[in-house]
């Protein structure tokens, strides 16, 4: 079910990429541009079909994370910055807390203001900050950390 929200996110991010390609900020071959446009159309179609079903099947989950599937949320076109490699550090002690989709979702809803704190956005608990920015996770967990930081 959770992947359904991803179609909307993908559509919005592809919208930004296409805008950059069409304005010349990013370069690509014409075939690549066509493939990206096709993917964007497919993502839009899938999002239109699946988001109402997600809302119907899991109203609580949809409500908590609904801000990320709203128009405009992922369409911010901010120029990225490069991180100073001197600031990077190797993982410290391995985490004793296993990966949990529910914990990740709870931290996202806390960030979005759709969690237990009501509509207070960006009220990040120490526990969520520590968990969602830990340098010691690897693999699939990193996608959740990256997603969290991208929303932030």
Automatic annotation (TrEMBL):
Gene: LOC118428635
GO cellular component, one term: cytosol
Stretch list, region Disordered: 84-104
Biased composition (Basic and acidic residues): 94-104
Natural source organism: Branchiostoma floridae
Protein name according to UniProt: UPF0764 protein C16orf89-like
InterPro entries (alphabetical): DUF4735 (IPR031751)
């Amino acid at each position: 079910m959770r992947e359904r929200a991803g179609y909307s996110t993908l559509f919005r991010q592809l919208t930004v990429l296409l805008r950059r390609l069409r304005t010349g900020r990013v370069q690509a071959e014409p075939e690549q541009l066509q493939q990206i446009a096709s993917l964007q159309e497919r993502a839009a179609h899938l999002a239109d079909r699946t988001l109402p079903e997600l809302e119907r099947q899991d109203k609580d989950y949809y409500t908590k994370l609904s801000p990320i599937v709203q128009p405009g949320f992922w369409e911010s076109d901010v120029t990225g910055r490069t991180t100073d490699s001197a600031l990077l550090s190797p993982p410290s002690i391995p985490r004793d807390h296993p990966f949990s989709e529910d914990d990740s979702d709870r931290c996202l809803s806390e960030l979005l203001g759709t969690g237990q704190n009501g509509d207070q956005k960006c009220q990040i608990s120490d526990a969520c900050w520590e968990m969602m920015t830990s340098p010691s996770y690897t693999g699939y967990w990193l996608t959740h950390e990256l997603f969290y930081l991208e929303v932030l």
